[in-house]
Amino acid sequence: MKVALCGLGEIGQIHLRAVRESGAELAAVCELDRDLAIQSVGVEVPVFSDVGELIEQTSPDLVDICLPHHLHVPVAVAALENGCDVLLEKPMAADLAGCDEILRVAGESGRRVGVSHNQVHFEPHRRLRQLIDSGELGEIRAIYERLWMGGKYGGWREDSSQVGGGLLMDAGVHRIYMAEYLGGPVQTVTAVMDNPRSEDAFVLTMEFESGALGVIQGGYHGPDGVFDDRIEIQASAGMAEILGCEAFFEGDLDGSLRLRTRIDGAWAGDPVGGHWDESVVASVKEALADLEAGRDPEVGLVEGRAAVAVVEAAYRSAEEGRTVPMVELTRGSRE
Ligand SMILES: NC(=O)c1ccc[n+]([C@@H]2O[C@H](COP(=O)([O-])OP(=O)(O)OC[C@H]3O[C@@H](n4cnc5c(N)ncnc54)[C@H](O)[C@@H]3O)[C@@H](O)[C@H]2O)c1
After folding, report:
1. 204 DSSP 8-state letter
2. How far apart are the first and last CA of the chain?
3. Cα 13 to averaged position of ligand 1 atoms, centre (Å)
4. Which residues of 212-227 are buried (b: 16+ CB within 10 A; e: fewer)?
5. For 233-248, how does the pLDDT look when each residue is reduced to its tens digit (9 = 90+)?
6. How far is residue 65 from each of residues 171, 241, 252, 294, measured CA to CA in Å?
7. Distance 193 CA to ligand 1 centre (A)
8. 10 Å Cβ neighbour count for 197?
9. Confidence of residue 274 (pLDDT cuts 50, 70, 90)
10. What is the CATH number of domain 119-275+311-324?
């Protein structure tokens, strides 16, 4: 399979590693920073600064998109219209209309789309999902996720028109798709935030279709250097907590990762390990394998859109001071 990789920044470097490890052919890269591109892939792989030219000249089977959010839709649409499958970094698009545009063009072109929700591939998260599926925890009653960061990243992330929002649309999206991965579909969202669509701090409360409740709380206002990321689950027969994926990748914490469970009345540590970069590599490799085999990836159009829909529901809730039912954001619903 011929893969074209667009964007060789922070996450593009991990995708590059995954593409190389997968055995796929790296047919070309698209990157505005030519020095970075040559440093990353050498002189053997063609470097472009325009995705249209890249597709025309190299005919890739798959375009892997690791670009700022506002570029996800135009690049994905160009790739799909030219007969390529697509893999997108999170979030699928900077807004819900963008997700629907990708869905429409994917449907018309008959091509497949994967969305890299890498934390689904973080081993402690997968173990937790297995525990839920096995019934050992009983029924999930509450999910609590937190994201405390100390300070912001610069660059395009400072421009909410490129991000499609603030912290919730960027790092917050991981918490949303994890909430749905563990708790199933969200039914309603009620949110409070400092400055909706350009937020530095937010609290979402969610009702899941299962009847469980959820809270996602995040903010940039931690002390310098903090990146605290964790998940806790309260269920009818047990509890579980995970000290998060990104807390370790940012280096705020060291030591071994922790999944702790309380089942049958006793807390126990689970030895499952995992690292943030491995979760990204696994996510990309599995999507590539599925697309090469002509299968829809585990995370695709449905899951990608669902996460962005919860973000949009949170923005509406915070702006309008009401609880937003997710049915309002169903594709094709009158808004
Ligand atoms: N899964 C994760 O944990 C994770 C972590 C970081 C970023 N991301 C996601 O990855 C994507 C990229 O984020 P990043 O942190 O790597 O950004 P980045 O700024 O580090 O890298 C973006 C790269 O794209 C290049 N670029 C920008 N415009 C371009 C254009 N028009 N044509 C070609 N190249 C262009 C830039 O030169 C830069 O090298 C975003 O969707 C972001 O949310 C995901």
Report:
1. E
2. 40
3. 10
4. bbbbbbbbbebeeebb
5. 999 999 999 988 888 7
6. 17, 32, 28, 19
7. 25
8. 19
9. confident
10. 3.30.360.10
What mean pLDDT, rounded, does the chain reach?
Answer: 95
pLDDT confidence of residue 335: 47
User: Against a cut of 0.90, is the pTM above it?
Assistant: yes
> Minimal CA–CA distance to 113: which of 63, 59, 173?
63
Question: d(Cα 116, Cα 27) in Å, to the nearest integer?
Answer: 20
Q: Return the ∠ at Cα 87 (arms to 335 and 111), rounded to 5°.
A: 75
Atom 18, ligand 1: which residue's CA is nearest? 9
Q: pLDDT: is 224 or 178 the higher one?
A: 178
pLDDT in tens, 62-96: 999 999 999 999 999 999 999 999 999 999 999 99
**Mean pLDDT of all residues in 270-290:** 95
Domain ranges of the chain: 2-117+280-299, 119-275+311-324
Q: In sequence order, which residues have a C-beta less than 8 Å from that of residue 79 and are 6 or more positions away? A: 51, 55, 60, 63, 65, 85, 86, 111
b/e map 166-187, b = 16+ CB within 10 Å: bbbbbbbbbbbbbbbbbbeebb
pLDDT at 334 over 60: no
What pLDDT score does 248 carry? Answer: 79
Nearest CA to ligand 1 atom 29: 32
Write the class of the CATH domain 2-117+280-299: alpha beta
Task: State the Cα angle at 183 between 182 and 186, rounded to 5°.
Answer: 130
Q: CA 330 to CA 112: how far, in whole Å?
A: 21
Residues in the ligand 1 pocket, defined by CB under 6 Å: 6-12, 30-33, 36, 49, 66-69, 71, 89-90, 118, 155-156, 170, 280
**Residue 287 phi, psi dihedral angles, 5° rounding:** -65, -45
CA distance 42 to 294: 30
The pLDDT value given to residue 238: 97
Residue nearest to atom 30 of ligand 1 (CA): 32
* pLDDT tens digits, one per residue of 106-117: 999 999 999 999
